[in-house]
Please model this.
Amino acid sequence: MIRPPNLLRTQQTLLAFAAVAWLPLLTGAQAQQTVSYLVADGFDYPVGKPNAAGYRKARGFYPNGHLGEDWNGNGGGNTDRGDPIYSIAHGVVVYSDDFKMGWGNVVIIRHAYREKNGQIAYVDSLYGHLDRRSVKLGDRVIRGQMVGTMGCGPRDMYMAHLHFEIRKNLEVGMNRSDFKRDYSVYHSPTSFIEKYRRLRQEFRRVPIPVNTFMRSNPNLLTMDRISAPEALREPIAAGGEGAPLPDEPRPQVPEAVMEVIETQTDAKPAEAAADRNFWDKVMGFLGRKS
Ligand SMILES: [Zn+2]
Model:
């Protein structure tokens, strides 16, 4: 069937109009929710507050490798298990749950801070593998407040350590695999903390966006959420930062895979995107070289 050209144009115009007309509705559906809270007056380390006294960074941040830092007590082994983990700054708890998989107990806190150029910006700090969580979703915490304790991850799959991330992208949440693994999404935690170590105290509150994690599939389970393969593919730092120590966690990869399969089996029917590459990822993971 051949449509008269003018009718085709009309249809295209209508389609274009429909798309544009929907935009405000879509945006409206995702209208930003905020809570009012303090601007950070600086950022501390999450262990041995405020300067990480008694702790060392066992692994550093590497784009496309290790997307956070691993912190250990100087005592070695599991002597640091149960040690307090502190919020690095004032902020709002935007995630507190047992994610299981390779993560275990995770807390994410969102912070408002003033950048060097004077503008308010936001970051999420993530504390992973916790033994216990001591804050809940929506809590407002202050710098140095305990958010949980150092742990060994689910089923004690690691030697005790803190996996610590700082994200500039507020949509990541536990959907790390949907985002780039570089500085467009993450800060190098220590660099960020050192840059904003002390900020002017402002006795004012600002709106902090909440419920920003991607809603397309908030509970999407993917291989990327497993810390086990992450640990295996971490490169060893040339400068020594992050060189694995003898007592570093060496997760059992097959166990992690089994865990994924179990969780995936138990999970609710996934949306199309969820299973799209699941086996690809499993196979890719199995074939991944460390
Ligand atoms: Zn880590």
The domain at 31-290 is CATH 2.70.70.10 (Glucose Permease (Domain IIA)). The radius of gyration is 21 Å. Residues 59, 66, 68, 70, 163 surround zinc ion (CB under 6 Å).
